[in-house]
Amino acid sequence: GAVVSQHPSRVICKSGTSVKIECRSLDFQATTMFWYRQFPKQSLMLMATSNEGSKATYEQGVEKDKFLINHASLTLSTLTVTSAHPEDSSFYICSARDRDRGLSPLHFGNGTRLTVT
Amino acid sequence: QKEVEQNSGPLSVPEGAIASLNCTYSDRGSQSFFWYRQYSGKSPELIMSIYSNGDKEDGRFTAQLNKASQYVSLLIRDSQPSDSATYLCAVIGQGGSEKLVFGKGTKLTVNP
Q1: Residue B8's pLDDT is what?
Q2: How close, in Å, is residue A110 to chain B by CA atoms?
Q3: Per the CB < 8 Å rule, is A105 touching B34?
Q4: What is the mean pLDDT of residues B50-72?
């Protein structure tokens, strides 16, 4: 149980284009999903908290107009990297918590490796 | 700023030995503590969760929590080469926030 599916697993795009990443909770409902970014040999950094039916909460230093988050249902959140640049190349990982289990551990998707050329 | 600190390592142990991973946290009101394992290029996977003081054992893994010292550890008994990975300590703070704060991770290498 508690499977989080993230798609695509890898994407290569040209500078200036936009990329959408999907995160789905397959067997549970998630009121809240979290988006992390990880640069090589660094830890996971929380980018934003995605709330179903409302606006996302962004961490300090994360541009909300560049990283668009939509959480339209209890099982789907999307992150769109707009006007991507090479410095946005990173490993993006979503995570979700079962809303029926309080502050239970986060379950992670398999991540999306974004390369911007 | 809530922080989670880990020794970045690398920590190297021989196969069959006990690996000891340590973590301290700054938010005294933290309630939930987790250890994740991350293989290179992969996303983290949950190893252990612990919520109260003391030890919690699951197979070869034992998590230890000491809230007074703001310290949580992970012991891996009979270490195997397949345990070689980066181990991330993560904490949920107080105040109703659901955010999980990660340490920078400790890289463990188990030598055959």
Answers
A1: 79
A2: 5
A3: yes
A4: 96
pLDDT 10s digits, B69-108:
999 999 999 999 999 999 999 998 765 567 888 999 999 9
Contacts of B46 (CB under 8 A, 6+ apart): A105, A106, A107, B34, B35, B36
Q: What distance in Å separates residue B56's CA from the closest CA in chain A? A: 15
> In the structure encoding, which two tokens stand for residue B4, read together?
């989670």
Q: Which of B82, B87, B61, B73 is nearest to B15 (CA)?
A: B82
pLDDT attached to residue A92: 97
Contact yes or no for A98/A29 (Cβ under 8 A) = yes
Cα distances (angstroms) measured from residue A44 to each of A47, A51, B32, B66, B101: 9, 20, 18, 24, 9
Is A107 near chain B, with CB under 8 Å? yes
Residue B7's pLDDT is what?
Answer: 85
Distance CA A9, CA A91 (A): 9
Tokens of B110: 């188990």
* Numbers of helices and strands, H then E, in chain B: 0, 11
